[in-house]
Amino acid sequence: MYKNINKNFLIVALIFVISIIVLNIYGCNKSDSKVVAEVENEKITQDELNKELNNRYGMEVLQDLITEKLILLEAKKKNINVSDQEINQELEKVALSMGGMDKLKEQLKNRGVSFDDYKQKLKMDLLLRKLIISELSEDEIKVFYENNKQGLPLVEVSFIMVPDKNLADSIVKSLKNGGDFTKLAETYSQDPISKDTKGYVGYLARYDISRNSPTFKTLEDAIFKNPQKGKIVGPIEVDYNKQKLYYIVKYHNVLSTYEEVKPKIQELLAQQKVQEYIQKLRKNANIKIHYGQEEKK
Fold first, then answer.
1. 144-157, pLDDT tens digit by residue?
2. Fold observed for domain 5-142+259-296
């Protein structure tokens, strides 16, 4: 069924960390290598570090660079581009799924990835997605739609969950008086799915909740009863493990028709076809690898 496209941040960040190593491997080749550490007065130099990084990750990084080059060449051939606006929109999606731009930047900093480098990685991801989508047929998209339309509508939602009815009623009252949903979610929500994302859950299809957690069918039924963009519903009472939980739901978007759902289907199919597409690019390309040949000789 449908997945939240924005939840691949951890994979993206981990892959990109490897790419950053390239800068260390190939960017520091001075003969007067600086000292990067000392152990009992024994020095470890940048050259030694570079050599070890090269031995451990060199081929892996090289393969990533080859893939990136193939994507750029194919995009140029098909005249496919990614604008700064598109990159910023994708960045906002990722930030929303992480609980805000500050949290995203904190995650990147913890992984040693610069913000600009991460934006470049998003650009490559968008280019790859556009390339794959450009080859999807209308029939392929419609078949997927027909096979999955029982899960419609798709709803993009945020949650606030508290275990106290009076608090839930107070939050609803505050929202009716113009309260900020994200701030209230950040302050009060105890929902394990969205407590770290200021309430944001992402897109859900019908049965996504009950398939994974049958106990929460009451919540799912309420969410899909009459979804409307911008609407806030609740509190919705859920019996869980002999405890009552109260959910307040905000709808950011509701997608029902084929034309509305089509872009999300394209994104999902593109995600599924990433490895297949990259393998096809490699198969059809003239690739010569000289890395390691001198060492072998």
1. 999 998 889 999 99
2. Triger factor/SurA peptide-binding fold (1.10.4030)
